[in-house]
Amino acid sequence: MRLPQEIIRDKRDGRALSEADIADFIRGLTAERVTEGQAAAFAMAVFFRGLSLDERVALTRAMRDSGTVLAWDLPGPVLDKHSTGGVGDTVSLALAPMVAACGGFVPMISGRGLGHTGGTLDKLAGIPGYDVAPGLDRFRAVVREAGCAIIGQTGDLAPADRRLYAIRDVTGTVESLDLITASILSKKLAAGLGGLVMDVKAGSGAFMARDEEARGLAQSIVTVANAAGLPTRALLTDMDAPLASAAGNAVEVAYAVDYLTGRAREPRFHAVTMALCAEMLLLGRLAADRAEAEARLQAALDTGAAAEIFGRMVGALGGPSDFVEASERHLPRAPVVRPVAAERAGIVGSVDTRAVGLAVIGLGGGRTRSQDDIDPRVGFSELARPGDRLGAGDPLGLVHAADETAAERAAAALRAAYRIGATVPVAREAIIERVG
């Protein structure tokens, strides 16, 4: 076994790492023989020097094998979706029960927020009683009974990735294509999936802001996943504005409940959710073509089947049994909720989506250190969309804050993130392209 510092030095100097070197380092990380500083140095070396395809596959498999690898015996395909992260991206909360309502089983291992993006796990942690880290036996039981379960990494599943994930968040290495690929796929391979659909974001709120960068990540994930035996497809989707009109934790859970129950279904959020769900049904052979997949998914929404499954999942994981029916009563509410007025009249031309995500962190809705607590109450709702026509003083959105000082600071950040002009912007499609 080589010393961790020797492995770090090789990658720092641009030399390829062997499968044995990578396995040694990941075993050391899991056993805590590799320090946090060494893990950070390794991540930075990979960030600057990159990994070959063979190294990516080796890193993915080593992190997968750092813990338990699940096997399922279920009466339907085991499917999942993963997003590279964005602002207002609460698709997972709607997608899992929709696919379950169509005959799939969705054991979703989700993460906490990274950088300026929100994390599915942080959103669900805002539901009183919801257990984001159940044991594997309970996880298996909920997937079987409800059809889906959205949880965080347990100590059993890809523990090496869980440690490296937290370090990446606070060391400026989140955007590494190699580390993103290995992080995502190690969890998904450990979950024992039969098919995976990737949602790779591009735009001002994405880690890979340019389309070509997002395309490269999508191709990397599809290539590595298929090489590791996991059938995978990817969609490039637009993140030039918050996907939902809510950004935060509890506010996004409320948004997902409104979507599932039909109280509100915004077109772009609906388009992305339906496209991802349809790809999952096709991968699982639950529909013959995209039209049939979309019809089944729409029926799952319209009949209330998807909302009922979401409520069942929440209850089975410790949340309120009447959560869907009474989410407003159960979700925590910020003490200060007030509109953020536009300073001038005009048409919303663009949104610096990353700045919106950073404003949520500034409110306490994200982390600047791995050990930070999150305030689930804070964020933004009813955000104006590109193309909206506003008068001076009309709201850009509502800020949800812990106190007036935080609200005013976040309001200023939100105003700075919006560009208001005289012309209607050219909107690009929510689905940019398909890969794989």
UniProtKB/TrEMBL annotation:
<dbReference type="InterPro" id="IPR013102">
    <property type="entry name" value="PYNP_C"/>
</dbReference>
<dbReference type="InterPro" id="IPR013465">
    <property type="entry name" value="Thymidine_Pase"/>
</dbReference>
<dbReference type="GO" id="GO:0005829">
    <property type="term" value="C:cytosol"/>
</dbReference>
<keyword id="KW-0328">Glycosyltransferase</keyword>
<feature type="domain" description="Pyrimidine nucleoside phosphorylase C-terminal">
    <location>
        <begin position="347"/>
        <end position="421"/>
    </location>
</feature>
<dbReference type="InterPro" id="IPR000312">
    <property type="entry name" value="Glycosyl_Trfase_fam3"/>
</dbReference>
<dbReference type="InterPro" id="IPR036566">
    <property type="entry name" value="PYNP-like_C_sf"/>
</dbReference>
<comment type="similarity">
    <text>Belongs to the thymidine/pyrimidine-nucleoside phosphorylase family.</text>
</comment>
<dbReference type="GO" id="GO:0009032">
    <property type="term" value="F:thymidine phosphorylase activity"/>
</dbReference>
<dbReference type="GO" id="GO:0006206">
    <property type="term" value="P:pyrimidine nucleobase metabolic process"/>
</dbReference>
<dbReference type="InterPro" id="IPR000053">
    <property type="entry name" value="Thymidine/pyrmidine_PPase"/>
</dbReference>
<dbReference type="GO" id="GO:0004645">
    <property type="term" value="F:1,4-alpha-oligoglucan phosphorylase activity"/>
</dbReference>
<dbReference type="Pfam" id="PF07831">
    <property type="entry name" value="PYNP_C"/>
</dbReference>
<keyword id="KW-0808">Transferase</keyword>
<dbReference type="Pfam" id="PF00591">
    <property type="entry name" value="Glycos_transf_3"/>
</dbReference>
<comment type="function">
    <text>The enzymes which catalyze the reversible phosphorolysis of pyrimidine nucleosides are involved in the degradation of these compounds and in their utilization as carbon and energy sources, or in the rescue of pyrimidine bases for nucleotide synthesis.</text>
</comment>
<protein>
    <recommendedName>
        <fullName>Thymidine phosphorylase</fullName>
        <ecNumber>2.4.2.4</ecNumber>
    </recommendedName>
</protein>
<dbReference type="InterPro" id="IPR035902">
    <property type="entry name" value="Nuc_phospho_transferase"/>
</dbReference>
<dbReference type="GO" id="GO:0046104">
    <property type="term" value="P:thymidine metabolic process"/>
</dbReference>
<dbReference type="InterPro" id="IPR018090">
    <property type="entry name" value="Pyrmidine_PPas_bac/euk"/>
</dbReference>
<dbReference type="InterPro" id="IPR036320">
    <property type="entry name" value="Glycosyl_Trfase_fam3_N_dom_sf"/>
</dbReference>
<comment type="subunit">
    <text>Homodimer.</text>
</comment>
<dbReference type="Pfam" id="PF02885">
    <property type="entry name" value="Glycos_trans_3N"/>
</dbReference>
<comment type="pathway">
    <text>Pyrimidine metabolism; dTMP biosynthesis via salvage pathway; dTMP from thymine: step 1/2.</text>
</comment>
<dbReference type="InterPro" id="IPR017459">
    <property type="entry name" value="Glycosyl_Trfase_fam3_N_dom"/>
</dbReference>
